[in-house]
Amino acid sequence: HNKHGQKHDAHVKDVDRKLADHRRTIQQEHDRNHNHLKDVVSQHADNLSQMVHSVKAESSFHGSMEDRVQRLEKELKEQSIKLMGINRFEAELKDVRETIGGEKKEREAHADM
């Protein structure tokens, strides 16, 4: 009966050792998988961050392009207004010159009489 007890004790120790080894193996596998998942999540977060940055940069670029277009349109409008003013001034100046020229001719014609 003593031999049977020793065999049983040896078997229990062997089973305990195998269970401990199995637990270590499972824990190592769990740790590897967990680390792999952390790496995958981190990579996806980096990719997402780059995409967000890219979208913001593109949006900023389009925004700055829109701002440039608006500034150019405003400048063009201001220049057009100035040009219209210059054209109006030149037209008025021409009218004044024609009026002065006409009056001068009238005086000359009147003086010749």
Automatic annotation (TrEMBL):
What keywords is this UniProt entry annotated with? Coiled coil
Q: Where is this region: Disordered?
A: 1-36
Q: Which residue intervals are annotated with compositional bias (Basic and acidic residues) in the record?
A: 7-36
Coiled-coil positions: 62-106
Q: What is this protein called?
A: Uncharacterized protein
